[in-house]
Amino acid sequence: METMFNVLVEHFKDMENTSKRTELTSILAQLFNSISVDEIDKVVYLTQGKLYPDYMGIELGVAEKTIVKAISKYSGITEGKIMDEYRKTGDLGDAVGNIVKGKRQMSFFSERLTVNRVYSTLDRIARSSGKGSQEIKLSYLLSLLNDAEPDEARYIVKMVLGTLRLGVADYTVLDALAFARSGTKNSREILERAYNLSGDLGLVAATLMKEGEDAVKRIGITIGRPVRPMLAERVPDIKGALEYMENGCTAEYKYDGERVQIHKRGKNVMLFSRRLENITMHYPDIVKISLKSIEVDEAIVEGEAVAVDQNTGEFFPFQELMHRRRKYGIKEAMDLYPVTLFLFDVMLVDGEQLIDLPLTERRKILWKSVKSDEKVQFATHIETKEADKLEVFMDQAITDGCEGLMLKDNSSTYRAGARGFSWIKLKRDYQGELGDTLDLVVVGAFYGRGRRAGAYGTLLTAVYDPDNDLFYTVSKVGAGLTDQDLASFPKLLDPYRIPHRHARVSSNLEADAWFEPVIVIEVQAQEITLSPVHTAAFNSVKVGAGLALRFPRFTGKVRNDKGPEDATTVKELIEMYGNQKKKPMISGTGP
Ligand code: AMP
Fold first, then answer.
1. How far apart are CA 470 and CA 465, in angstroms?
2. Ligand 1 nearest atom to the CA of residue 381, by list position
3. Is the CB of 73 inside a 6 Å radius of any atom of ligand 1?
4. From its phi and psi, is residue 418 left (phi > 0), alpha (psi between -120 and 50) or beta?
5. Pairwise CA distance, residues 383 & 389, whole Å
6. Cα of 256 from ligand 1 centre, angstroms
7. Residue 259: CB within 6 Å of ligand 1?
8. Beta carbon of 381 within 6 Å of any ligand 1 atom
9. How far is the CA of 336 from the centre of ligand 1 (A)?
10. Where are the beta strands (DSSP E) in 504-545?
């Protein structure tokens, strides 16, 4: 039986209104149980404001002007009035909700919307492209709106605009799926593994609901579907890191670029980011060099793309590489910031899944499958467990323009989507500062005063706790924000602005503005201290206190390559706090 769209809308409303993460999960589980199994993948995507998994790179692409036109035709209200309401609410979807509330008379001919119809019409909207496509998109959108109740219209407009933000993270979906299927979280691990290997929550959901757990276990790696990347832990010094390298250690340069997962089959190449977005269009040069250098027919390899200054031959910093992530002017950006690829792993070759082989084996296969040249190289590495040699190698890495080293356990398998101690990142110590920067999620902001009046003068930032999928505040960050940052942050943050604290954020502070946890920034601090105010690691180190940053400073890096769940974790923060007490404040290896 087909589910009415209204069922989705009622659950969406409940989700928007809750500020409790557990409630969000149970509403979602309820929703999964109220629909037919044939619709589950569509509902999973729609709940996250998508039509497909991110890696397919399919966007609705409806111009704001087109949407305003559609709303005007739908409501009989002039475009000018709609724009006035839009300015007041900041969201066109809410504007529609306000404008037509109670005023709408469904026509005698209207037919109630079903989930399938909404999905397939949105799909058609996404697929019409080229000249005249805005007209076609407009007519599809109108066909939906004409049969929509005001609340339904509100969510349709939000979906089309990409502003539907229910805060449903991947982990929340996995929890809710496990719960919906069995009433417990027992199958959570199996679901997570399948998601890590396929990058497709809709696929995992549909397989679970239609075929059961055993079928989910059989989901593996396929060309064209990005694998969730393996992640590294941080340890402050080489000796500490070596303790985890039980079975031999490979140290590689840690390049400061963008992680790229390359899928090649025959003459086709697809590139995926660390966040599983399809970034093929941004890097035509990587596509070209992959086709030339990957000598097997089918492969999934991974590496870091680094922009190289053609004049000096030196690496450009990460921020410069981000100029490559643009929609237009790709050729110009490619000429200004050409990249070199440093490969460090392989997951599949000619149909064979390699992730369960030890690192040393995978590397041999990588070397055999790829012919290196100036543009495609293997990550510079040494194999040693001697701290002295690693110190020297670290200095060499920094001199060569890298961030530090990655230490990898020689016997480790490729653990997709997992952060563990088989990979450890070691960054350079800075005098008197914490050895590593933190990647923090912006969850709120305070308005500036004086010179910063009208801008977000201070950001409220948080660390992530994967155990309960919540973000805990750790610091207000104002230092390091340049005038340019102050001007650009509203543009960056306002699309995620919400009227109240987000359900996945824990904070004792009342911010002037709240945001959905999306944007990740890099912050350097001098020290981690106990704090009665911040909620990060509350009661973990000391009863009645959390952890906070002393003298935090924005480094200028907005980490668009990281999602909120990739931010520094509570556990890492506690470890960093513990480690700083063991170390003298001024490190011998600093500049
Ligand atoms: P971080 O972003 O600080 O968590 O550090 C991990 C990131 O370092 C990875 O996601 C890669 O983008 C990058 N990286 C640079 N060099 C390497 C390497 N040799 N092996 C693995 N990751 C690397």
1. 5
2. 19
3. no
4. beta
5. 10
6. 8
7. yes
8. no
9. 24
10. 505-506, 513-515, 520-524, 527-531
252 ligand 1 Cβ < 6 A? yes
What would the CATH number be for the domain defined by 231-427?
Answer: 3.30.470.30
Q: How far, in Å, from the CA of 401 to the mean position of ligand 1?
A: 14
491 catalytic per annotation:
no
Q: Are 417 and 405 in contact, with CB atoms under 8 Å apart?
A: no
Kindly give the number of the ligand 1 atom that is closest to the alpha carbon of 566. 4
Measured by CA distance, the residue closest to atom 16 of ligand 1 is 254
Residue closest via CA to ligand 1's atom 4 equals: 232
Does ligand 1 lie within 6 Å of residue 427's CB atom?
A: no
Domain with CATH 2.40.50.140 in the chain: 438-579
pTM for the whole structure: 0.80
Tell me, using a 6 A CB cutoff, whether residue 370 lines ligand 1: no
Would you say domain 438-579 falls under CATH 2.40.50.140? Answer: yes
CATH 1.10.3260.10 in the chain, residue ranges = 49-161
Q: Per residue in 522-538, is it b (16+ CB within 10 Å) or e — as a string? A: bbbbbbbeebeebbbbb
Question: Residue 286 and residue 143: Cα distance in Å, rounded?
Answer: 42
- The secondary structure of residue 349, as a DSSP letter, is E
Q: Which atom of ligand 1 is nearest to the CA of 254?
A: 16
Separation between Cα atoms, residue 316 and residue 326, nearest integer Å? 17
How far is the centre of ligand 1, averaged over its atoms, from the C-alpha of 590 (Å)? 21
Instruction: Note the pLDDT tens digit of each residue in 194-236.
Output: 999 999 999 999 999 999 999 999 999 999 999 999 999 988 7
Q: Pick the catalytic residue: 137, 254, 427, 476?
A: 254
Distance CA 46, CA 294 (A): 37
Return the number of other C-beta atoms located less than 10 Å from residue 335's C-beta: 10
Residue 432: CB atoms within 10 A of its CB come to 12
Confidence at 98, pLDDT banded by 50, 70, 90: confident
Residue 254 pairs in a beta bridge with: 404
348, 296 contact by CB (below 8 A)? no
Residue 375 amino acid letter: K
211, containing H or E segment? helix 201-211
Q: What is the dotted CATH code of the domain comprising 49-161?
A: 1.10.3260.10
Q: What is the pLDDT of residues 397-432, one digit of tens each?
A: 988 889 899 999 999 999 999 888 999 999 875 444
Q: Is 449 left (phi over 0), alpha (psi -120 to 50) or beta?
A: beta
Alpha-carbon gap, residue 244 to 344, rounded angstroms = 20
Query: Ligand 1 mean position to 318 CA, how many Å?
Result: 12
- How far, in Å, is the centroid of ligand 1 from the Cα of 415? 14
